[in-house]
């Protein structure tokens, strides 16, 4: 049976995040997953950070946001490799994993053909209501057929750690944002496939989206991400960097739709001017990478 680790990166974790991780760990252990690595990217340790560190069966690393998300993921994956893991489940702190996720990936991994570099779930979005509660959007984010795709998001992805080492891991120039797009390109460029499981789900909070910041066009609903100016800076900087780095290999499916994101920002978000200025700085700085 394949050796699987879970790698979670935390940032200013809350009691809710700690509870979710403990529940995830307990479910994973039922399916033979016994290696857990928590990389804490908080700027300073908190009481919750200390509780993470005290959990049994995990290795905790305080990274002090040194190198951003990309370096934190590399730290976690390299620790998993050092502990003889063959695969790593990458976990955002706000992702919820039902038991069916672990039973599903176990079934697929046991019958997996050579050539798959990433095994990824389908998703349901979690949206904040006006009262602050999480509300489930009951429409799957993707189609329910299992299919080969060209890009998947980081959280919930099961990556082949042998391939991870071969392609050089995650690009630490990116810091935060578009790490998943770049890694997807690396997998495809290595002649490996990305398989999205249509019937295996995780629940993912959609940025800082909430019910009051959305627009519906036909049968599609678009939510404002409500990210900070800093996140918008890295989004545009890294997108333009990847377009230059990968050229024609950076496909339409892998690219971030810059114009759509700007339109949603202008229609739905606050602090528009600050975020647009951050995007302009990001576009300028992308040439320095």
UniProtKB/TrEMBL annotation:
Kindly give the SUPFAM superfamilies that the UniProt entry links to this protein.
Nucleotide-diphospho-sugar transferases
Q: Which domain of life is it from?
A: Bacteria
- UniProt entry keywords in alphabetical sequence: Glycosyltransferase, Transferase
Q: Does the keyword Transferase apply?
A: yes
Ranges for the Glycosyltransferase 2-like domain? 6-114
What the entry lists under InterPro entries is as follows: Glyco_trans_2-like, Nucleotide-diphossugar_trans
* Pathway where this protein functions: Cell wall biogenesis; cell wall polysaccharide biosynthesis
Work out whether the entry's keyword set contains Repeat: no
One GO MF term attached to the UniProt entry: glycosyltransferase activity
Family label: Belongs to the glycosyltransferase 2 family.
What name goes with this protein?
Glycosyltransferase
Its gene? Answer: cps26O
């Amino acid at each position: 049976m394949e050796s699987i680790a879970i790698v979670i990166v935390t940032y200013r974790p809350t009691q809710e995040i700690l509870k979710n991780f403990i529940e995830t760990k307990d479910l994973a252990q039922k399916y033979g997953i016994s290696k857990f690595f928590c990389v804490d990217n908080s700027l300073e340790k908190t009481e919750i950070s200390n509780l993470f560190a005290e959990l049994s069966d995990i290795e905790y690393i305080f990274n002090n946001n040194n190198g951003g998300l990309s370096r934190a993921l590399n730290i976690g994956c390299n620790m998993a490799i050092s502990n003889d893991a063959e695969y790593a489940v990458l976990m955002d702190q706000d992702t919820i994993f039902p038991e069916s996720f672990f039973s599903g990936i176990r079934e697929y991994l046991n019958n997996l053909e050579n050539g798959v570099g990433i095994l990824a779930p389908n998703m349901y979005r979690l949206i904040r209501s006006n009262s602050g509660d999480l509300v489930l959007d009951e429409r799957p984010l993707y189609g329910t057929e299992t299919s080969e795709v060209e890009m998947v998001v980081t959280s919930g992805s099961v990556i082949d750690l042998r391939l991870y080492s071969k392609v050089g891991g995650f690009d630490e120039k990116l810091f935060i944002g578009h790490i998943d797009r770049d890694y997807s390109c690396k997998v495809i460029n290595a002649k490996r496939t990305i398989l999205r499981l249509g019937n295996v789900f995780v629940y993912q909070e959609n940025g800082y989206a909430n019910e009051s910041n959305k627009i519906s066009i036909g049968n599609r609903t678009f939510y404002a991400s409500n990210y900070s100016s800093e996140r918008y800076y890295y989004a545009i900087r890294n997108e333009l960097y990847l377009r230059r780095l990968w050229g024609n290999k950076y496909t339409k499916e892998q690219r971030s739709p810059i114009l759509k994101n700007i339109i949603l920002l202008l229609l739905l978000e606050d602090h528009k001017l600050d975020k647009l200025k951050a995007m302009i700085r990001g576009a300028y700085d992308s040439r320095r990478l």
